[in-house]
């Protein structure tokens, strides 16, 4: 079926859009040519070379835009050619009636016909005809784009949408014969409607691709005018996915508040949109088998009554060492947190929970991030760069995705947001399928989103440019890097890791707490329940509240400190008694995390809120010291009942474990 040209009005509309982009590009090139090195706020190396690269990049984008525009808007037939084609079609119909199915699907325009308006239509643009329901119109010309030229009873002419019209006139009885003839035309149009819908669908798809390219080009002119390498997308699906993440960051970039290398955080958006699905509390819960009558990752060893160890396909321990040459945010925003979000990733899917590790930095060298800083006492779990990953996925492309991000607040408006300043991916197996050896890895940090490939970081040299070995070495030293060290844990940590779920990513310092929770979970679900089919509520504050601590690291640190103090006060004989150890753990949990979580003076958890973090930290320290003094004394219960320590009202469901709700 031959392709149809766009209507005159649509063609002019498309040309106007192209002229706007062309004029914007020419203006940008003119401004770029006028810029000098003295206009820059900060010193810029290789200014002339980078300026030439930007000019060449704009020319390349313009050429691509023109090619796509020509592809999406092929030159349509002229009016003379339309008349010639109509004459040829008429001759073909006379000579060969069997070829009617192969004729053009354009509506017949030889004679005017009468239509009735089904609904009110108000013309918003010049050339539209405003009509009301029940008006009778004489159709002068029908076009394939759905806008027909019509004339009303007053003699006014204009275009109206075809969907607002119904063939025939309800106000005149003198045109019934013409209605019969028009009904034949409607039947022919119905026969060709399927082909027209297919063609219109293809045109809409191409129009969407054109709009996506235009939108990205305008975004490039606004936010990425200087020193950022542009790589054309390999496919439109990935490009659309990247464009859907554009939000208020465009405004900040256009104002120069943040560098163009920053973009909305992909993993942070997953945590916000799909919440519990990618949190550690979800993966800590037991997983039901296919029969829904037992568990697939939680078993008891009948010989010793402990959780049976499980060894998934992948179990690695690693340390986040540092990040180098990371772009710095602009002066218009205040950074609340510099962090790395990491998860198991196979190139298309997130296969584990999303774990966050906060980075520290030296103001004298803000482009270098460090992890696991030296602190007095217990290192907070949020700052602990020693992590582990257990994953049972059998994907050959399984690896760890590291997304470097910042949480910011805009100084002028107070608006908060999460930005990504790059990402890195480390595949956990080599070409032969063997696990990577334990050593230190320097991973290049890329720009864009994890679904895009070969996108350079802001200010980094192009990886493909320069063929000399010495040049490649110099450029490699200027690339953004993430340094990760793989290591082997000790035997105790190995044994505790084998008790955890098949899929989980967390810090190594919390492994003893996670292993104890899994042991208590197995005792409750596999031993204490009357039958495996019993699904009644189980009163257990530890099992009900502990998953909440996975999303509040400061409370997890409070429990860890309380449990370490309890272990230090236990005798060796008590440590060998497993029942005594479980009882002491429940007491430490009740006197630390549970007490704080239900305190009315304890502010709710909010990510990267300095005020809330300071209040929670001071209350945790003061409560810990007070409980430590009262522990083992008669005043312990009096402290819990003290009017100065008011508690929030709670429902019985907050203290009970609901297997049907939490199992996945």
Automatic annotation (TrEMBL):
<dbReference type="InterPro" id="IPR036028">
    <property type="entry name" value="SH3-like_dom_sf"/>
</dbReference>
<dbReference type="Pfam" id="PF07653">
    <property type="entry name" value="SH3_2"/>
</dbReference>
<feature type="compositionally biased region" description="Acidic residues">
    <location>
        <begin position="79"/>
        <end position="90"/>
    </location>
</feature>
<dbReference type="InterPro" id="IPR001452">
    <property type="entry name" value="SH3_domain"/>
</dbReference>
<protein>
    <submittedName>
        <fullName>Nephronophthisis 1</fullName>
    </submittedName>
</protein>
<dbReference type="GO" id="GO:0090251">
    <property type="term" value="P:protein localization involved in establishment of planar polarity"/>
</dbReference>
<dbReference type="GO" id="GO:0005929">
    <property type="term" value="C:cilium"/>
</dbReference>
<dbReference type="InterPro" id="IPR039687">
    <property type="entry name" value="NPHP1"/>
</dbReference>
<feature type="region of interest" description="Disordered">
    <location>
        <begin position="171"/>
        <end position="202"/>
    </location>
</feature>
<dbReference type="GO" id="GO:0005737">
    <property type="term" value="C:cytoplasm"/>
</dbReference>
<feature type="compositionally biased region" description="Basic and acidic residues">
    <location>
        <begin position="91"/>
        <end position="101"/>
    </location>
</feature>
<keyword id="KW-0728">SH3 domain</keyword>
<dbReference type="InterPro" id="IPR030642">
    <property type="entry name" value="NPHP1_SH3"/>
</dbReference>
<feature type="domain" description="SH3">
    <location>
        <begin position="110"/>
        <end position="170"/>
    </location>
</feature>
<feature type="region of interest" description="Disordered">
    <location>
        <begin position="65"/>
        <end position="112"/>
    </location>
</feature>
<feature type="compositionally biased region" description="Acidic residues">
    <location>
        <begin position="176"/>
        <end position="201"/>
    </location>
</feature>
């Amino acid at each position: 079926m031959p392709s149809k040209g766009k209507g005159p009005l649509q063609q002019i509309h498309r040309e106007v859009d192209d002229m706007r982009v062309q004029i914007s590009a020419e203006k940008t090139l003119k401004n770029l040519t006028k810029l000098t090195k003295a206009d820059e706020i900060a010193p810029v190396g290789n200014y002339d070379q980078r300026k030439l690269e930007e000019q060449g990049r704009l020319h390349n984008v313009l050429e691509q835009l023109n090619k796509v525009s020509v592809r999406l808007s092929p030159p349509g037939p002229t009016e003379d050619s339309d008349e010639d084609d109509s004459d040829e079609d008429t001759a073909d119909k006379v000579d060969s009636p069997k070829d009617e199915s192969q004729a053009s699907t354009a509506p017949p325009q030889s004679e005017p016909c009468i239509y009735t308006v089904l609904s009110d239509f108000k013309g918003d643009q010049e050339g539209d005809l405003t009509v009301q329901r029940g008006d009778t119109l004489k159709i002068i010309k029908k076009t394939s784009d759905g806008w027909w030229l019509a004339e009303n009873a007053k003699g006014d002419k204009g275009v109206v949408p075809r969907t607002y019209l119904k063939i025939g006139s309800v106000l005149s009885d003198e045109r019934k014969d013409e209605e019969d003839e028009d009904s034949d035309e409607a039947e022919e149009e119905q026969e060709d409607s399927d082909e027209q819908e297919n063609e219109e669908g293809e045109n809409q798809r191409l129009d969407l691709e054109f709009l996506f390219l235009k939108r990205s080009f305008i975004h490039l002119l606004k936010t990425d005018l200087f020193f950022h390498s542009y790589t054309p997308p390999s496919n439109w699906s990935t490009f659309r996915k990247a464009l859907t993440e554009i939000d208020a960051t465009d405004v900040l970039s256009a104002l120069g508040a943040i560098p163009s290398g920053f973009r909305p955080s992909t993993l942070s958006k997953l945590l916000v949109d799909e919440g519990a699905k990618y949190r550690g509390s979800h993966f800590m819960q037991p997983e039901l088998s296919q029969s829904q009558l037992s568990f697939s990752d939680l078993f008891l060893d009948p010989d010793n009554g402990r959780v049976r160890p499980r060894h998934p396909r992948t179990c690695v321990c690693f340390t986040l060492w540092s990040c180098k040459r990371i772009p710095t945010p602009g002066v218009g925003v205040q950074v609340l947190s510099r962090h790395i979000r990491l998860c198991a990733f196979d190139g298309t899917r997130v296969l584990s929970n999303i774990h966050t590790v906060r980075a520290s930095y030296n103001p004298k060298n803000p482009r270098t991030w460090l992890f696991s800083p030296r602190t007095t006492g217990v290192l907070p779990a949020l700052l602990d760069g020693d992590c582990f990953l257990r994953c049972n996925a059998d994907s050959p492309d399984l690896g760890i995705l590291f997304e470097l991000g910042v949480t910011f607040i805009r100084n002028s408006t107070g608006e908060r947001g999460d930005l990504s300043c790059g990402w890195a991916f480390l595949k956990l197996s080599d070409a032969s399928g063997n696990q990577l050896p334990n050593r230190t890895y320097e991973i290049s940090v890329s720009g864009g989103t994890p679904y895009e490939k070969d996108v350079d970081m802001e200010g980094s040299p192009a990886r493909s440019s320069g063929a000399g070995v010495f040049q490649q070495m110099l450029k490699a030293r200027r690339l953004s890097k993430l340094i990760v060290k793989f290591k082997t844990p000790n035997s105790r940590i190995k044994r505790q890791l084998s008790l955890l779920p098949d899929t989980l990513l967390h810090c190594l310092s919390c492994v003893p707490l996670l292993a104890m929770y899994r042991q208590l979970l197995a005792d409750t679900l596999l031993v204490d329940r009357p039958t495996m089919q019993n699904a009644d509520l189980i009163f257990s504050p530890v099992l009900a509240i502990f998953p909440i601590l996975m999303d509040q690291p400061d409370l997890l640190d409070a429990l860890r400190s309380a449990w370490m103090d309890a272990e230090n006060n236990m005798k060796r004989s008590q440590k060998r008694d497993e029942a005594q150890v479980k009882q002491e753990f429940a007491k430490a949990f009740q006197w630390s995390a549970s007490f704080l979580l239900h305190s009315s003076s304890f502010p709710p958890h909010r990510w990267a809120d300095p005020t809330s973090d300071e209040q929670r930290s001071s209350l945790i320290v003061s409560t810990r010291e007070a409980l430590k003094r009262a522990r083992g004394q008669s005043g312990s219960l009096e402290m819990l009942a003290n009017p100065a320590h008011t508690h929030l009202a709670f429902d019985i469901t907050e203290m009970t474990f609901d297997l049907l709700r939490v199992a996945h």
